[in-house]
Specification:
Elements: E1 6-11, H1 22-31, E2 34-40, H2 47-56, E3 60-64, H3 78-87, E4 95-104, H4 112-129, E5 133-138, H5 141-150, E6 158-160, H6 167-175, E7 179-182, H7 192-200, E8 206-208, H8 231-241, H9 245-259
Parallel strand pairs: 1-2, 2-3, 3-4, 4-5, 5-6, 6-7, 7-8
Helix pairs in contact: 3-4, 8-9
The structure holds zinc ion (ZN).
Length: about 260
């Protein structure tokens, strides 16, 4: 697997848990054939970190946004600040998406109205800058599609991270133009929904990710996950689709090129 071109569409490289191992992590990624990592910001205070990582490392690209778990940071100025951060990045930074954004009504139901408002603003920012979005939606798919309708967004460029919803939701997401992205758990035979979605989605609408440092593939349980471990996701998708890892890796590479605007 070492020579497969690997693409991690969703990584939290600014997570403090990774800070002590970042130099080794990047060295290992190069050895293992990682071509691209999309570093997602979850909080306001990660925007600078992911932008400057993308300026310092050829393989790192950045997504700026605010995750539904961290909307305590989201106030009347946040949308303008996000526009400013995207419009005037640090020298050499490669900001190619808005993320991680979305709705999570499983564990954060109390902030429903704020989540909807923050997501609406961030979707409009993505539209205005013509950037794809990195979506985190959990137990909120009907509300998500209703919000798109309210905003008159019929097609949306981007991906649904850690996809594990039903086939009907997969169909609706694909119909809206979204890609489905899978991480470590898809390699676990018990992840029935994620595996069913990976089987259902056309290969040319699939991305691979790690969500590092979380959600390791089964063979890395007990460790912080790292972007190079995305090989396990490629292998799992190959097994599910009865394709070769080479074909899956090459198609994911092509999907990445088509989805993200490359400088
Ligand atoms: Zn994430």
């Amino acid at each position: 697997m070492a020579n497969l071109p690997l693409y991690d569409a969703h990584a939290h490289l600014a997570d403090p848990r990774l800070a002590p191992i970042l130099p080794q992590l990047f060295a290992e990624c190069v050895v293992r054939g990682v071509r691209r990592i999309l570093a997602n910001a979850a909080r306001r205070d990660e925007w600078d970190a992911v932008a400057s990582l993308s300026a310092r490392h050829d393989i790192v690209y950045a997504a700026l946004g605010m995750h539904p778990f961290f909307l305590a940071d989201w106030d009347d100025h946040s949308a303008d600040e996000l526009r400013q951060a995207i419009a005037a990045p640090p020298p050499g930074a490669k900001i190619i998406a808005v993320g991680e954004i979305g709705l999570d009504f499983l564990s954060h139901r109390d902030s429903t109205a704020k989540q909807l408002a923050a997501l609406a603003q961030q979707l409009l920012i993505a539209r205005d800058f013509d950037l794809p979005v990195c979506l985190h939606n959990r137990k909120a798919w009907p509300e998500f599609f209703a919000l798109l309708k309210d905003l008159r967004i019929t097609t949306l460029r981007g991906y649904c991270h850690h996809f594990g919803a039903s086939r009907d939701i997969a169909r609706q997401a694909l119909d809206h133009g979204l890609h489905l992205s899978f991480c470590g758990p898809v390699a676990d035979p018990n992840s029935r929904r994620a595996r069913a979605a990976a089987l259902y989605a056309p290969l040319d609408r699939i991305l691979s990710e790690t969500d590092c440092p979380d959600l390791p593939a089964p063979q890395y349980h007990g460790q912080l996950s790292q972007p190079w471990q995305v090989h396990a996701v490629v292998q799992a998708i190959a097994d599910i689709k009865k394709a070769t890892p080479e074909v899956v890796a090459a198609t994911i590479a092509q999907n990445w090129q088509e989805l993200f605007t490359q400088p």
